[in-house]
Write a structure and sequence with these properties.
The protein is an all-alpha fold. It contains 22 helices and no strands. The protein is about 70% helix and about 0% strand. Helix 3 crosses helix 9, helix 11 packs across helix 12 and helix 11 crosses helix 20. The longest helix is centred in the middle third of the chain and has 37 residues. The radius of gyration is 24 Å and the shape is globular.
Length: about 550
């Protein structure tokens, strides 16, 4: 696929006047109609929508578990191969391109725009769920621990709980984002195609990326982005509302949640209008600073030495078992239900977010080599996630292991069994704090961090959607950023009022099915193009004599 045989851009598809100036007319109309139709259908008959989406989710989790598992394994091994292959020195851009952002800013944006809200929501609750052995939801809490004979709630089961949590937040998930981002960045910055999802399928579709097939691919990416962000908004405001209840006694119900969505959406839209180099970059850096402060509190307010050892044990356990865990396919009915409700849900969620996060990390990674990109995008966020889970989840597990009334009586597992997942973080803060004042201060910091992460995810999503609709323009029209920033907030608010958040999550998982096919095709397309990239051809080794004479050059001249 020679570079000079490719179209330079998709400018011929962009409107130069009218309401959608700077965007693709047809996709702009279709994307808004698609979002509106989904929301209206959900609002008009919430029960019917819930049944439809629930049926789709059950079918995907039941009939296609093997497919999701196989797809994620393929994606992971492709990423591991590219890390150490001869293609690693190729840059996402021209051969002399330099990174646009410093390493710190790059890492901050990578972490903040992806697992931020999700890991705050699940980082304490998920290890507690796997540590419990009550099987209160009709299936085993942790089939991996049960298979190892760790059925009692003790330290061994606690390590197993964090290992499984790390599995869901580790290399498998980040491989999805990394491969998507690599494909988008490679074709956009090196092959000079538009920075859109369709461009990564050029080796498959050829010039048809500028026709209906390409439009369909990008619309699917917009769908996954909008509803993936709205889902995270729902999780984020639920937890923020709980924080507001702890701080000010505010009712954490739907009214508060909708009000928070509106406020955060306004701030996020302003940030998106300012661009990546200003609002998003600054907020991402603040996220890391606040995150470090919160981590230090949990580390030193809790059993510091125990937590460090626990982190090493759980991480080592993950390193030795993550491949076998990735290949595991459940067969017993209870295990099948667990795998569908957790692992397949997570793989679907990661895949549904692939257009959003992949597009965003491609946008901020221009100029980096493939090897640098692969190591940075996979290992740095994964390490941060493991530290977070071991310290935050580890504190909660330590409290349950050493509860005065016996193991499992600290009250945090009860919150999980009542499905108050967002409240477990604040419950842990309360039990770790030395006095009500300290608990209030740390809860305030946590709530503020939730807000900044919320804003970063939302403004990143807005920028990605408008970049897609403008055929890869890294600086899409500001008025359209405002429109889509408001649209994302509106989708989240309306569905919260309609009680449709569960259906929204299901839709995101269902959207992951076709996206997974696209990501696998993108992997093949990248390989095909890399094989033809002149920079990937190894130069023949020169034979040098002991006295320094270059045999092939000097003697054969």
């Amino acid at each position: 696929m020679p570079q000079d045989s490719m179209p330079r851009n998709g400018d011929h598809l962009i409107s130069d006047k009218g309401l959608f100036k700077g965007l693709h007319n047809g996709m702009s109309i279709a994307s808004k109609a698609m979002v509106a139709a989904f929301v209206v259908f959900t609002i008009l008959n919430v029960d019917l929508a819930g049944e439809v989406y629930g049926g789709i989710r059950s079918w995907v989790e039941g009939a296609l578990s093997w497919y999701y598992i196989s797809s994620v394994i393929i994606i992971l091994f492709v990423c591991l191969f590219l890390m150490f292959s001869r293609f690693g020195s190729i840059r996402l851009g021209d051969d002399n391109a330099k990174p646009e952002f410093s390493n710190f800013s790059w890492f901050a944006m990578l972490f903040s725009a992806s697992v931020s809200i999700g890991i705050m929501f699940f980082g304490v609750a998920e290890p507690l769920f796997y540590f419990d052995n009550s099987a209160g939801w009709g299936y085993p809490n942790n089939p991996f621990a049960d298979a190892a004979g760790h059925t009692e709630m003790n330290l061994e089961r606690a390590v197993d709980a964090v290992r499984v949590t790390n599995f869901h937040w580790g290399l498998h998930g980040w491989a999805i984002y990394t491969l998507t981002g690599l494909a988008l960045g490679y074709f956009a910055f090196r092959k000079k195609l538009p920075l859109t999802f369709r461009s990564a399928l050029y080796p498959v579709l050829g010039e048809r990326i500028y026709g209906p097939a390409g439009h369909a691919v990008d619309l699917l990416a917009v769908f996954g982005t909008v509803f993936g962000i709205a889902t995270s908004m729902g999780l984020g405001v639920t937890q923020m509302a709980h924080g507001m209840n702890v701080l000010f006694g505010v009712d954490p119900g739907v009214t508060t949640q909708v009000a928070l969505v509106i406020v955060i959406s306004i701030i996020a839209t302003l940030s998106a209008v300012s661009g990546v180099g200003k609002g998003i970059k600054i907020l991402s850096q603040w996220n890391i600073v606040l995150t470090i402060a919160l981590i230090l509190f949990f580390l030193f307010a809790g059993p510091t030495q125990w937590l460090v050892g626990f982190f090493l044990n759980a991480t080592g356990d993950y390193v030795t078992q993550f491949l076998s865990m990735g290949f595991w396919t459940a067969s017993a009915p209870g295990d099948v239900a667990w795998q569908g409700g957790w692992t397949i849900f997570y793989w679907g969620w990661w895949l549904s977010w692939a257009p959003f996060v992949g597009m965003f990390i491609a946008r901020i990674s221009k100029g980096r080599t493939i090897r640098e990109f692969m190591f940075g995008a996979m290992l740095v966020p994964t390490t941060m996630a493991f530290i977070w889970i071991s310290i935050f989840g580890g504190n909660a597990l330590f409290l349950e292991l050493n509860a005065e009334g016996g193991v499992g009586t600290a009250g945090l597992i009860d919150m999980v069994n009542n499905w108050n997942l967002g409240g477990t973080l604040f419950g842990t803060i309360e039990r770790l704090s030395d006095g009500a004042t300290m608990a209030w201060i740390v809860s305030a910091l946590t709530t503020f961090l939730l807000a900044t992460w919320f804003i970063t995810s939302s403004d990143s999503g807005t920028l990605v959607v408008t970049t897609i609709l403008s055929m890869g323009n890294p600086h899409p029209p500001k008025r359209q950023r405002i429109v889509w920033g408001a649209a994302q907030g509106l989708v989240a608010a309306v569905l919260l009022m309609a009680g449709g958040l569960s259906a929204l999550q299901t839709a995101a998982i269902a959207a992951a099915l076709p996206i997974s096919v696209l990501v696998v095709l993108m992997a093949w397309g990248v390989f095909k193009s890399l094989m033809q990239d002149p920079a990937a051809v190894s130069e023949p080794k020169k034979q040098t004599a002991p006295d320094g004479t270059v045999i092939d050059g000097d003697l054969h001249a």
